[in-house]
UniProtKB/TrEMBL annotation:
This is Protein glxC. PANTHER family: TUNGSTEN FORMYLMETHANOFURAN DEHYDROGENASE, SUBUNIT C (FWDC), TUNGSTEN-CONTAINING FORMYLMETHANOFURAN DEHYDROGENASE 2 SUBUNIT C. Gene3D superfamilies: Glutamate synthase, alpha subunit, C-terminal domain. It comes from Xanthobacter oligotrophicus.
């Protein structure tokens, strides 16, 4: 068996983004370094996309669009802010932004955990399909739009039309909600939901810092996506 090589550092001021992503795509986590550092991202788009190995990638600075998109197994930590589409279509693993995230963070995510230390802009978790998203700040309008499964947990406030056209994603907001979207309603926060919420907060490193009883739960009224024969002429 090959020995694990030392940790790797890529300086994007001297190395191309294509080289970085190509190296990450061939890494296995067994024969390659498991810890990677990326310097001087300077807002570049598509940094550390498509990883499919149990690596840890720390990015020292701000990133542009689609950072950590399609992530599987890896842990990607961004020491800065992230642009549009952070962790889009994430499959598994862990993505952590130490700053704020722009629009559509975690969009279409199938699994894994996305943690945002700051605020997330509009459409956070749009069309989420199993991902868990924890936002320590607030989220913008249309967050969890058409959310199918997974959870969105917001410690701050939520903007307009939260959960519009929601399917079965679970939404928890600690602060205020400006308005609910079509077919999204407030639901009772029962003991099993508090347990689920506590589990997700623990995974995000927030165990004991937040009282789960302070959250409100939102979900689908299950009216929009059911076919009613009496309304057939409207389809």
């Amino acid at each position: 068996m090959n020995a694990i090589s030392p940790d790797l550092t890529f300086d994007l001021a001297a190395t191309s983004l294509r080289e970085l992503n190509a190296a990450l795509h061939t890494a296995t986590g067994e024969s390659n370094a498991r810890r990677w550092r990326v310097l001087n991202p300077n807002g570049r788009h598509a940094v550390a996309v498509g990883i499919n190995a149990p690596l840890t990638v720390e990015i020292e600075g701000h990133v542009g669009y689609y950072c950590a998109g399609m992530n599987a197994e890896a842990s990607v930590i961004i020491h800065g802010n992230a642009g549009v589409g952070l962790a889009e279509n994430m499959m598994s693993g862990f993505v952590h932004v130490r700053g704020d995230a722009s629009q559509a963070a975690g969009a279409t995510g199938h699994g894994g955990l996305l943690v945002i230390d700051g605020n997330a802009s509009a459409r956070c978790g749009i069309s989420m399909k199993g991902i868990d998203i924890v936002v320590k700040g607030s989220v913008g309008h249309m967050s969890a739009f058409m959310g199918q499964s997974g959870s969105l947990i917001v410690l701050g406030d939520a903007g307009e039309a939260l959960g519009d056209s929601l399917y079965e994603a679970k939404l928890f907001v600690r602060g205020s909600v400006k308005s609910l979207g079509a077919d999204c309603i407030e639901k009772e926060l029962r003991d099993e939901h508090k347990a689920l919420l506590a589990e997700k907060l623990r995974a995000a490193g927030l165990e004991g810092t937040v009282d789960v009883a302070e959250f409100k739960r939102y979900g689908s009224a299950r009216q929009l996506y059911n076919f009613h024969v009496d309304n057939a002429s409207a389809y």
